[in-house]
């Protein structure tokens, strides 16, 4: 009961913080039977919240044991049933005394019992949350856990990798992509490999996890690949309906291809390097021109016929008005607690520059601030209009704010497309030139990718 309640609260909090959370491949995750989920860990406690709220099956969470030393978190983690995992480095540093080979015996037993019941267990095999542009070397704990469960007679265990891709994990109103990989059966894997080898299974999990995440050699390459991927994916695709949330899926695939091509630059000819620089400069020039003219990159190809514009107005106008009212109400009522929570959370960056802290602290502090704020509003409304009026008022305020948070992406896309429509409608020749330029840039990028990979294959 407590798990379900906290799952609902976490889902609301995440969708208040992030603009949109898109899940790719959720149907691949088994809904029953023993399941071990491995995920990358870029965003502290936000990561288990995302996995727990996007998968249909209840998930047994694991966390590093040091979190249980926090007096504020420990009761909550224990109440939800989080299993503490002790890392060797923590014990070696004196956190829990001397390091012991059996330090996780109780945790392994708890996980084995959950798998035997046909439950799902989440483990972050990197062991730590971090800001690196690639996943860290995986620890063998996840492999050892399922191998121990198998040796104790648990059969039918499936393993699935979940990749968490953040547009900007610390920024409110940014986008998140949750990628669910293809599950594989431990029994089948063992039959093919002939023995219970934790190192070999860890390598298999590493390959599965890398297939659903983005991994870059450096932070600079990550920034460049993501920026270019956003531009190229927007130029290559037709405008999506404003009701459809933007997905990072296509951008993630572009970013992976761009980084692979970037790696090939080391062996490229001077002519190919010049072509890469020319493409980057042309993309930057186009982006700056669109920004200057108030045209959205994603909407360059939108129809500018009056008939389509009028149809768009009649379809989206009432929705725009509704969400506009909700925006004013939600902004006015929630501005103080949300801003206060965000300001306090950002203060932590003065002492800890890690980017995996602001979102977590904003959500936790925001939940506390909103509870206090709603209690205060309830008392004020009860004094002014009575108990029934206070209850109705709070329900109206919360419902309106939550409806806006769910629809804010559509509101933003509607305004953006309307602005682009007017800008392009006033200059039809501009749109034709932008479309021609977009097609040329996409074709140039594909040609450059092929040339880079061809030259790289010639220099193994």
Provide keyphrases for this structure.
Glycerol-3-phosphate (1)-acyltransferase, alpha/beta, single chain, 460 residues
- Cα separation of the termini: 57 Å
User: Any guess at the CATH architecture of the largest domain?
Assistant: 3-Layer(aba) Sandwich
- Compute the gyration radius: what is it? 25 Å
- Binned strand content: 5-15%
Give the rounded overall mean pLDDT: 87
Q: Give the overall shape.
A: globular
Number of strands: 8
List the helices and strands in order.
Answer: HEEHEHEHHEHEEEHHHHHHHHH
The tally of domains stands at 3
Approximate helicity band: 55-70%
Which structural class should the secondary elements be placed in?
A: alpha/beta
Summarize the structure.
It is built from 15 helices and 8 strands. It has helices at 2-17, 46-54, 74-80, 88-92, 105-116, 141-151, 186-193, 198-211, 219-236, 249-264, 270-293, 306-347, 358-385, 387-425, 428-457, and strands at residues 20-24, 35-39, 59-64, 83-85, 120-123, 158-166, 175-180, 184-185. Helix 3 (74-80) links the parallel strand 3 and strand 4 (83-85).
